[in-house]
Amino acid sequence: MVFQLVIPTRGFIEERDRMFHDTLKYAGAALAAGWFGLAGGPVLAAGIVQWTAPADGSSYAVGTNVSPITGRADGFGTGGSGLDLMFVLDASGSMSSVVSGQSLQQWQKDAANALASALPTLQTSVGVVRFTSGAFTALNLTPTSNLAPITAAIDGTPASGGTNIGAGIDGAVSEIAANGTSGRSRQMVVFSDGFSSGDPGAAAAVANAAGITVHSVGLPGSSVSTMQDIASQGGGSFSNFTNASDLSGLIGIFSGTSGNLVGVSQVDVELPDGTVLANVGIDGLGNFSLPSWQITAGANVFKVTATFDDNSTATDTLTLFGGNNPAPIPLPAAAWLLIGSLGSLGVMRRRKS
């Protein structure tokens, strides 16, 4: 009798391990319900909407055109403004594999550079973490006003070694904690073929619990289930990248043209004359702006209502006052001394006479 030795492939072993981890994970579904809603999406914190300029209670002469009038909505209740975004890049040996005429390494560069180019240039920083069996910070959070070091960190990502996506996610969390800007939205995008040791979905859940949204981009031929699980547990969006157009949804989220990063579904504004501006445009970070407003006499009250992805709402009001006489301009201290001196001279003259 002849026996044939069959050696399991790497893909078979990883799929077996993933199924084992999934069995354990979904056995704890009752615990997971505390983090995720029935639809599998993240449960938002209490959302907020607030006017940011001008200051509430400001006074103007009647007829003044006030501009800009700005505000911000955030379904996660973090407030502040701006974005700290980490790119988590796969530097493992599988990135040397060729799919549809080019290496996964090149597919990853194309995707990451396209996304970086679409980001806002104000109040936005990008950092880069590379992972193999461990993680390495290739670029600390850097303002997107200077794309050169960001592009260099993306293009310099190698392709060798093992794969531990969770280590990359943990590395991105550490970088945001160490160098992030207080009050900014905190996000990361994980790029990979999804074949990994450990449980990257669990790492994404931990990151999300720390207030960081985790998106994922599956490169051609990826384990779609793994990459989807990362985005689902991280509270983010998943893109299955096979050509440039596949990134349009994710790019639209960051730019605000098709969704946003802050869980806002709609912003409506009621102007002081009762006119309602429905579905006011917002950028990817929830910022919005109104046309100029000509101040009328008395209280000019603006009311904004934000509706969030979980159908909850929040409101805020801004009151600007209009008067016929502008506020008096304060005199400098020297002028008051001069007036006081002139008054003293008048008293002395009356006494002399």
From TrEMBL:
Pfam families: VWA (PF00092). It comes from the Bacteria. Residues 84-257 form the VWFA domain. The keyword Cell membrane does not apply. Gene3D superfamilies: von Willebrand factor, type A domain (3.40.50.410). InterPro entries: CLCR (IPR051266), VPLPA-CTERM (IPR022472), VWF_A (IPR002035), vWFA_dom_sf (IPR036465). Keywords: Membrane, Transmembrane, Transmembrane helix. The chain crosses the membrane at residues 329-348. This is VWA domain-containing protein. It comes from Paracoccus subflavus.
